[in-house]
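User: I'm writing a tutorial on reading structure tokens. Could you give me a worked example: one chain, its sequence, then its tokens, then a sentence or two explaining what the tokens reveal?
Assistant: Sure. Here is the example chain.
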Amino acid sequence: MSTFAPTIEAFFTERLMTQREARPRTVAAYRDTLRMLLCFIQAGTGKAPSQLDVADVDAKLVSAFLTYLEAERHNSARTRNTRLAAIHSLFRYAALRHPEHAELIQRVLAIPNKRHDRSDVSYLQPVEVDVLLAAPDRGTWFGRRDHALLVLAVQTGLRVSELTGLNEEDLELGPGARVRCRGKGRKRRKLRSPVTTYFADPALRRRHSSRTKARTSLPASASRPRSGNSARVARNSRATCTLLATVDSQSPRSFSRYLR
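And here are its predicted structure tokens:
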């Protein structure tokens, strides 16, 4: 009877989903890594995943899989390390269920991350930020939305997922304006926003309030305010396209660096 298959199932259902309450994208990333590993093992050994034992997946095989990712799938060292992190997480869990394989598991966990070059963190100069913020046509609804989105990114340095997840109640307007967000790692933050952006614009606020009772702060469309925002909206805005044509590509995370 296979000992590896039930361990993998328990890893997803007990460890990730129940004990750690991992996000769906985290679960999907781990799933994809282990799916590729199982396909690699079956192609090399002829053993189906349902027939594998923990002893079959040793450090030598895992190292060969990592080499395959780089040589055949052309994964970068960063992606290779991400896949290895998922495998390490699985084997740390397996160590508690299969202490009889402690030495084998220890060798797998000893496989190190691969070192790689790290790019310098770039930032926008004040003149580049001015070009960026002047790009949207504020005479249109979409232009005012894009301007609000970009000004908030410059002021706070929020990630795209944090920007698109904001609700109306997350904005504290008036003196000492603040923005509350729930970001990476489920961390809650409250950030100072020197200039109130979206709801400081009466035209946007009236249009949003008259069309819906939804709480989304930056709806994706004037005709579909309930649809909320999305990363596609943030990445495909007219202002962002102008930025890409005039300055080096930047993430919203780096917009605020020139203010610091």
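What the tokens reveal: The first helix runs from residue 4 to 19. Confidence is low (pLDDT under 50) at residues 210-215, 223-227, 238-250, 255-260.
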